[in-house]
Amino acid sequence: MWWALWAAWIFVILGITVLPLENFVGHTHWDQVSWTPFFGHRLELYDIVGNMVMFIPFGYFLRRAATPRTRKRAWVLTLLLAAGVSTGLEFYQVFCHNRIPSTTDICSNFFGAIIGGLLSEST
């Protein structure tokens, strides 16, 4: 059940971050990238919190899907997948109008997945 919830949540994340597809233009906007995490004029608290909240279920469901035997490996998998998915989504946004790719978003997503993983240990 936990794997199915995690897979479903991936689709929720994709829907939130990728849609509307009309934003994708096929050429890069590297000048829009906010490279320094947690610094800059585009830094908004609601954006940081929103990204963290979006990835809490990601970490929670993935860690709950682990068996007691694979708990340690599940942490590594959670961290790698959170970093990979988040980086991939931000890279997609480099090709979009009206989206601002940011290393702050990657860090916020990563921290959200960690929080979700920690919450799974308390239940």
Structure, described:
This protein has four helices and no strands. The protein is mainly alpha-helical. It has one domain. Helix 2 (45-65) packs antiparallel against helix 3, helix 2 (45-65) packs across helix 4 and helix 3 (71-93) packs antiparallel against helix 4 (103-121). It is elongated. 30% of the residues are buried.
Radius of gyration, in angstroms, nearest whole number: 15 Å
Share of β-strand residues? under 5%
Outline: elongated
Give, in order, the helices and strands. HHHH
Compute the number of strand runs: 0
Number of domains: 1
Ends: how far apart?
16 Å
Unreliable residue runs: none
Helix content: 55-70%
Q: Which structural category fits the helices and strands? A: mainly alpha
Detail the topology: elements first, then pairings.
Layout: H1 2-18, H2 45-65, H3 71-93, H4 103-121
Helix pairs in contact: 1-2, 2-3, 2-4, 3-4
List keywords for this structure.
4 helices; 123 residues
Describe this structure in a few short sentences.
This protein is an all-alpha fold and 123 residues long.
